[in-house]
Specification:
about 20% strand; TIM Barrel; about 30% helix; alpha/beta; binds S-adenosylmethionine; binds iron/sulfur cluster; 11 helices; two-stranded antiparallel ribbon; 12-stranded mixed beta sheet
Length: about 325
């Protein structure tokens, strides 16, 4: 397994299969369509599978498919089937806004997908549409049910919390976990991309989110939902599901970071907050063999920075120029 320069084991790949999205969430994308990468720059299925094999041979065992919205990539079930057969990949998960899940969940499960995280920021239909700018709450809720019915479990619900956007809904989201096996994860807003949305006023600190989530008890490790990320897990007493918290700014998650990202156009990004990456598409299309590609991956992992630089940006409002949908958030 690869280790970075700070002795962190890195075995988790967030694999973006598209920078396109059928929604435009206010904190993630600007209202007008961002400048998408040209279609010719997007990795093909064959290229993605080849790079996944290089990562697997470098010791990566977990892949999360993300985007943009991964379900808008044509032929995704077939790509998932191929990724699920890459030797060494033990866990294959996907992050989605859920809009297309009602029609695709069963097919994705059959193809080899293990589990899904579904982004959902409001349980109020009108507010949902204001936050996501497109889309419909009932479709996403149908998607949640389809994921549960198809066995894409544990199903996690990702809720980005922002003041004045949905901070009054923390108790309602926490209540979702009481009678259903749903795992709600509250995510602190991050200063990513020139969306015009992030501000110190909108940012809600982890301790405030936790205080509003109601009585919580720690979940013992054996009962935690499968996952490899930075969430800390709790549950409401007697609840079927759990409540997790992901905080980039209040409690930096960098010390235990185990991941890198591959953009849909083939750039390996060693840190969520990095402004540069390692191009793998050029060498791949230029005929580089696996040994060369694996050497590039190892060098990028070695150069992984110790941590992000988001804290300073909370005050001075400067943004990482890349949008989350371009990085594969
Ligand atoms: N479209 C899929 C989705 O929405 O789940 C996958 C891609 S999306 C970029 C991945 C995750 O990043 C989502 O959970 C989203 O809420 C989160 N995200 C996007 N922008 C963010 C921001 N500025 N701060 C915190 N989380 C953000
Ligand atoms: Fe699209 Fe996901 Fe970003 Fe929302 S958070 S705009 S669904 S990529």
């Amino acid at each position: 397994m690869l280790r970075d320069g700070f002795n962190r084991a890195v075995d988790y790949l967030r694999l973006s299969v598209t920078d396109r999205c059928n929604l435009r969430c206010v904190y993630c994308m600007p209202e007008s369509a961002p400048r998408y990468a040209p279609g010719a720059d997007m990795l093909t299925d064959d290229e993605i599978v080849e790079l996944a094999a290089c990562f697997a041979q470098s010791g990566f065992s977990k892949i999360r498919i993300t985007g943009g919205e991964p379900l808008v990539r044509p032929g995704l079930p077939s790509l998932i089937g191929r990724l699920s057969r890459v030797p060494g990949i033990a866990d294959l998960a996907l992050s989605t806004n859920g809009m297309l899940l009602p029609d695709m969940a069963a097919e994705l499960k059959k193809a080899g997908l293990k589990r899904v995280n579904i982004s959902l920021d409001s349980l109020d239909p009108a507010r949902f549409s204001r936050i996501a700018r497109f889309g419909a709450l009932d479709k996403v809720l149908e998607g949640v049910e389809a994921a549960l019915d198809s066995g894409l479990t544990p199903v996690k619900i990702n809720v980005v919390v922002a003041r004045g956007m949905n901070d009054d809904e923390i108790p309602a989201f926490a209540a979702l976990t009481r009678s259903r096996p749903l795992h709600v994860r509250f995510i602190e807003l991050m200063p990513m991309g020139e969306t015009g949305f992030f501000s110190e006023e909108r940012w809600v600190a982890l301790r405030e989110i936790m205080a509003n989530a109601g009585p919580l008890e720690a979940v013992p490790p054996k009962d935690r939902p499968l996952g490899h990320g930075p969430a800390r897990y709790y549950r409401a007493p007697g609840a079927l599901g759990s409540i997790g918290f992901i905080s980039a700014l209040s409690c930096g998650f960098c010390a235990s970071c185990n991941r890198v990202r591959l953009s849909s156009s083939g750039t390996l990004i060693a840190c969520l907050d990095a402004t540069r990456g390692t191009d793998l598409r050029g060498p791949l299309r230029g005929g580089a063999n696996r040994a060369r590609l694996k050497a590039l991956i190892a060098a990028a992992v070695r150069g992984k920075p110790e941590g992000h630089a988001m804290d300073g940006r909370l005050k001075n409002r400067s943004m990482n120029p890349r949008l989350m949908c371009q990085i594969g958030g």
